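Handoff note, outgoing to incoming analyst
You'll be picking up this chain. Sequence as last confirmed:
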Amino acid sequence: MTDLRIDPPYVADELPMLHSWLDWHRETLATKCAGLSEEQLRLRAIAPSALSLLGLVRHLTEVERYWFGDILNGENNPALYWTEQEPDGDFDLVDTASAAEAFARWQAEIDRARKLSAGLPSEAVGKQQRKGENVSLRWILIHMIEEYARHNGHADIIREQIDGVTGE
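Most recent structure output, in case you need it:
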């Protein structure tokens, strides 16, 4: 696996630290997917799970889009990969999905998230509420780190199942 991750600093102010950890986790998912064919990216974990590396990329694209676009920036973006009829479409509908398209959209959402959060203080409140509550950029960043960390654990197991490759 090609590992392009940059270790987060051991000492930094809050926002650079949070952004560094989020970027590290984003790159961890990219590392787990590196060098695999489209078919390998579609392989499911273990039945009955629908988890696949491609599904994780699609899911995290939706997550980036929702938290930074909708909650932080007040948008109402339509879902990219799921519908009311297919609420888990990001995971379930990968059999004919394009990996190139998914990775391009994921990177575009990451780039957009960085732009939308650039220059904002950690206590900045999103323009849209979640469950009737205001949400700070600090909360979004911490949640995103948690979301990626959890799914990177899934990605680690799936990658090991595909070709035996492990790593942090």
